[in-house]
Amino acid sequence: MADAPSGIRRPAPDGGDHGTVTLLVDPEPGTRRPLLTSALDGSPRWVAGVIAAVQGAVLSLLVIVVPALGAYVATSADPANDGVEWFRSVRVGTAVWLAGHGVPPVIGGTRLTLVPLGVTLLAVFACWASMRRSGAATRAAVLAGTGAYCGLVVLLALVTGAGAGGALRGVLGGAAVAVTGLGLGASARPEAPGWRALLPGAAGRAPIAVRVGAGAAVVALATIVVAGAVLVLAWIAVGRSTVMDIAESLGAGGLGAIVLALANLLYLPNLVLWATAWLAGPGFVVGAGTHFAPDGTVGGTLPAVPLLGALPEGVPGLAVWMPLVVVAAGALTGLFVHRALRRVGAGRRWFDAPLAALVAGAGAGGAMTVLQLLANGAGGPGRLVQVGAPAFTVGLAVAFEVALGAVVVATVTDPVLHAGARRRWRSYRSRPAPTPARLDD
């Protein structure tokens, strides 16, 4: 059996010999290709991960820097920009890219810790696409790529003057982006073994309720985020006139308007997560003295940002029932639990359905807490130091509401639970009544 490609020397049509042609031949018909395949012939697997990481970093950086350069070119004739060098726009674009990795820029002596999650998602997508196209499905490739990506983030942070603290935050943010993007990209490659093979035995050792509950938590979280995105679209549709008025007041036209729109899109995922906090009940703030929640709105004075013009100026009385949307997401999660446990069949316990529903609620609440922490931060000096939602309060609200809907549906629809409850009730009823003790005179 051949375990490696064979080199075959064939003469050229003119009778000469122009080298060796390498043919890739499967060892046997119907057998799977080897798991450890390299994107570059003869190179170690980790090299493919490094190349994919560099590609992802450069591509996502260019998407941010090129519009900044375009804005500089479009406004270079303005006398107000006299003496401003073109490289400054590159530094601004790089600072925005670093902000998406948790490296806060400093403006007016204030560190802007509000992470533009649009940049973060862009970087994750670029790493995913690069790894899926030219990487390798090995742990070595993912780890080497993560190291290379973190190195690039730290280098750019130091070049832009972020300091040691910014570089440390860049290591953490870069590692999170790279592990997520490169890991998902590696798992999407044709030769990838799947997550269960990457975590040998872990999935099988976990109880059924935990495995099903973890998958249900993903369903609940995705449903709530989609509901938040729909709510943001509704806000934009209702407040589009205010959004347009703010954009026109900034005087951006042509390329400047495009750059302004792109800048607002970078924070659109943050607004979606704030909308999920609004749906859950606790709401969010955009500066001290403001509060947006289903039970009322305190707008205050907001910065002249078109995206913030979509925030609701008031709420109808029925809005207090909006947390039922999260409960409905929990009910959908309960249906997922029911279907997943039905596929398990034998070997499950009678209380696995409500337990899996509780695990789903806890998982969704914990994940939402992390997302809200990522979406919060300081958006500017003064009142804007506080922007975002109370992460732990939102997480607890989501956990309770999802668990409520999931437990009700999973309990009502689970026949194994019903049968187990009936058996225990009959066993309880069939036990002989205790004989009362007699007191001797």
TrEMBL record:
Q: Which UniProt keywords apply?
A: Membrane, Transmembrane, Transmembrane helix
Q: Does the keyword GTP-binding apply?
A: no
Q: Known InterPro entries for this protein?
A: DUF6350
- A Pfam family (short name) is DUF6350
- The superkingdom listed in its UniProt entry is Bacteria
Region entry Disordered, spans: 1-21
Membrane-crossing residues?
46-74, 114-131, 137-159, 171-188, 208-238, 250-268, 318-341, 353-374, 394-417
The protein depicted here goes by the name: Uncharacterized protein
